[in-house]
Amino acid sequence: MLDAVRRGATLQGARAGALADLLERDRRLAYELAAGVLRRRAQLDGMLELATADPRLHDVLRLGAYQLRALARVPAYAAVETRRLITWNDTKPPLTLQPVRWSTSELASRLREAGFGVTEAPFGAGVRVIPSPEPRVPSPARLPGFAEGAFIVQDPAHALVCRFAAIPPGTIVYDACAAPGGKAVALERGGVRVIAGDARRERVARLVETARRAGVAIRVAVADLLAAPFRSEALAAVLVDAPCSATGTMARHPDARWRVTPRTIARAAERQRALLAAAAALVRPGGLLVYATCSLEPEENSDIVTEFLARHPQFARVPAPPAPPRGGRGPCRPAHARRRLPVAAATPRDGRRVRGATRPSALMRFRRHISPVRQWRLPALDKLGARRWGLALLGALLGGYLTAYLLLFPAPLLHGHGVVPRVLGLSLQEASDQLRKAGLQVQDGGSEPHPTAPQGTIVWQDPPPGVSAPAGLKVALVSSDGPPKIPVPDVAGLNGELARRLIAAAGLTVAQVESVQAAAPPGVAMLTRPAATSVLSPGAPVTVVVSRGAPTIAVPDLLGMSQADARTRLELDGLELGTVTRRRTRDANPGTVVGQKPAAGTLAAPGTVVDIVVARSP
């Protein structure tokens, strides 16, 4: 409301648009806060000395001060909670490691031997590295155990997602937004069988590298959850760590505070609704759907969950298991990293227990339920009942067979189905032939630059290799356009040395430096050959033309001088002796100058090279 008033709206008009979705009690409180700040703004500004504060915080500080001074029913800790959160976000986050191939004790011991301080992360969720004695912690790649896969880098809040999810060992779980792979590694090491997917192709390489270094057998796929390569109700558990506004990780990602707008949160919530609905279709009855974000906004957490449960009555909220509060105290932490998720008292519903969070939380668990066992009825053992039993048994056998071969070990099973072959690295013609032999169609996905793949070879395919596909499915192929082309930098007007460095930094080679007379100061780059913005291959040669300065020195008359005297005269005038050519002649004494270029009296720039011709005996 305060933002709307600042933009010229009336308070009543802003109230109608901003408070429509709130409960009556919350609407009254929000209106009282906004109206009170507007009434006492001059008094509050004088008390707060806002001239020294970040303009983004002015309304936040006014609201907090007004609550403390004028509203008795708002506790003081609520008024300053936002300020504490800002302080936390402005603090450099510590480096936290999650043990993988080494135990926690071994990792801590090796770090101490290397001279680092070590403490336990909050709730025992990892090992926190203290920069001692150096003021800064080095790159994780330089810490002991990195090459051996002893640990992965992961904040405690992310690590706690797997603990709160509590997915039973042996369960097949689809980690739908898996990159960079920390949670997938934690789940796999806990005995869960993980299929990790991510729609962002550029991040899958990091996911694969994380799994390789951690030594876990995770099946990885480039797949968008909105078009996941699984049939309906095929999975026992799905984890959706949804893309969000990241307002809970501003300490780790300081750029987020400059990118987040109300529109950012609205767009994130829209995508989260779609992802959660797509994940729900994959969960089988009795299965588990885990939804998590690193946002603090209710629009991305409790609002999403409440709306989802209203639209999917076959799901019920279940409480997260307790997280033992072991170690670590911070001034402010996200709700899901502070304590177990609170739940309201359970209420009976069709013989089932339904639980829901009492306030916004960043982690929600749902369980898809079926009718209680006491409501099940066995068919009568007459002729019709025997037929039903036979059909049920046949369906169970067929379902198990299909689950094993289509989900656990995808392979061609039915007529007209097959596995998408791997065609990466092949030429477009070879890849097309293989796909057609497999009964699939080829869709041209164009080409894109690739640093290492030769031109014309396949660098990406969708669906990825190994996916079970029906006959006639279109497989999109993207071929390499060769190494990326590099535009020649525009270095005109720069110092010649700086121009050479910029061209080399761009990935090109400075093959030659030429000088010309020009009005520009000596040593300034004039142009390049090829011209600026020309597109070249990496390492291609470029010629830089620099200025010798304006022509201000008259070239002296060197005719009749000896070669040594000519050199001395040129150097005294600020010029240089260039090529010396000898020519037989009877018209001059041997060893004297009989010709020069430029001619005597020509204006030249400092440092200009003068070529001479010296007579020799006939």
Give an overview of the whole structure.
The chain is α/β, with parallel strands linked by helices and 618 residues long. The chain has 7 domains: 2-89, no CATH class; 95-152, Alpha-Beta Plaits (2-Layer Sandwich); 154-374, Vaccinia Virus protein VP39 (Rossmann fold, 3-Layer(aba) Sandwich); 377-408, no CATH class; 417-480, Trypsin Inhibitor V, Chain A, CATH 3.30.10; 486-547, 2-Layer Sandwich (Trypsin Inhibitor V, Chain A); 553-616, Trypsin Inhibitor V, Chain A. The chain is built from 18 helices and 28 strands. The protein has a 7-stranded mixed sheet with strand order 7-6-5-8-9-13-10, sandwiched between helices. It has a 4-stranded antiparallel sheet with strand order 2-3-1-4, covered by helices on one side. Strands 15-18-16 form a 3-stranded mixed sheet, covered by helices on one side. Helix 5 (58-70) runs antiparallel to helix 6. The radius of gyration is 37 Å and the shape is extended. Mean pLDDT is 79; it is low at 323-362 and 410-415.
